[in-house]
Amino acid sequence: MVWAGAEVIAWMEYVLVKVSIVIPSRERPKSLRRLLHSFLDLNSVIMEWDVHVIGDRQSCWSQEYSSEDFYWLKFSTCMHGGPAAARNMGARQSAADWIIFVDDDCVVPPNWLRMWEKTLANAPSDVVQIGGPGYTLFPSVPYSVQWYLIKAKFLAKPVRIGKEIECIPTLNTAIRRDMFNQIGGFDPTFTFAGGEDSDLTFRLRKLGSVTYELCTYLYHDHSRSFYELLAMYFRYGRGIAHHIYIRNRAYQAGMFVADTPYWIMMRLPIVAYAGWRAGSQIRCENLRGKVTILIYSLAQALAYQVGGAFEMYLRKN
């Protein structure tokens, strides 16, 4: 009887968990379609769940989603602009206990929601945010940018400064809805993808614990060109500079940005060291691989610094 009672209690806990999955999307209909169709193969769960797709400055609805197979799917359009504002709109439409944010260039494996069900049902009451990895969707090409991002475990782990989790990427993260509402959600002044996730985790850490669960993994499209790699880290630099400015945070290791071209040049040795240190953790078998790591890691570190300097320049003018 004791074991039967424990099973009933565990079952009731699972039933009480309600989840909304929020997906911001803009100009990537093929990626969004791939993601939404992957939900059709999910293993069954006990908890209640639905999906909110928020089109960023455009409608993402298509006639193909009208079938009964997509009964869990809702579409909205956010005209204010930016993934932060789009995610906030999706969160406002939810009455769930937890909100799981997913990016539109991801694919979920069949056990993804079942792993989240188990994780959320067992989450301690002081945990306000839980992250999960984004593993590569496609095999890597040796010494390509995609290869570098995969070897660097990009989006497969949280960003840490020391032992503290500084940022959980929003491609795969769950947040308690009441805590999300308490901090006002994402800051809509982040009008592009970059820094808004760091800013969110920074504010959530003041309310409780932030953790990471490897079992809740999904797959992410890591394919990038060299130009896209530079553009991505340029946005990250801008976003972190914006975060530092609005939160009045001190510069610190892992988040430093230069505010003028002069200081960029002065900090080039630091940038070079940081890039090499990040890339040196990647194992490669020959000189070509080592040179590739050096070029990519230095380029991303420099693009990050230039992005931060550009954001600071805009603020001064």
Write up what this structure looks like:
The protein is of the alpha/beta class. Helices cover 43% and strands 18% of the residues. α8 (226-247) crosses α11 (287-316) and α10 crosses α11. It has helices at residues 2-16, 29-38, 83-92, 112-121, 145-151, 177-182, 196-204, 226-247, 261-266, 268-279, 287-316; strands at 18-25, 48-56, 73-78, 98-102, 106-107, 127-131, 134-136, 159-161, 164-167, 172-176, 209-212, 218-220. The longest helix has 30 residues, at 287-316. The protein is globular and about 55 Å long. The protein folds into two domains: 2-224, Spore Coat Polysaccharide Biosynthesis Protein SpsA, Chain A; 227-316, no CATH class.
End-to-end distance, in Å?
Answer: 72 Å
Regions with little confidence, pLDDT below 50 for 5+ residues: 1-5
Fraction of residues in H or I helices:
40-55%
Shape: globular
How many discrete structural domains?
2
CATH architecture call of the largest domain: Alpha-Beta Complex
* Percent of residues in beta strands: 15-25%
- By DSSP, the count of extended strands is 12
Which fold name is given in CATH as the topology of the largest domain?
Spore Coat Polysaccharide Biosynthesis Protein SpsA, Chain A
Name the CATH superfamily classification of the largest domain: Spore Coat Polysaccharide Biosynthesis Protein SpsA, Chain A
CATH class of the largest domain: Alpha Beta
In spatial order, strands of the major sheet run 3-2-1-4-10-6-11
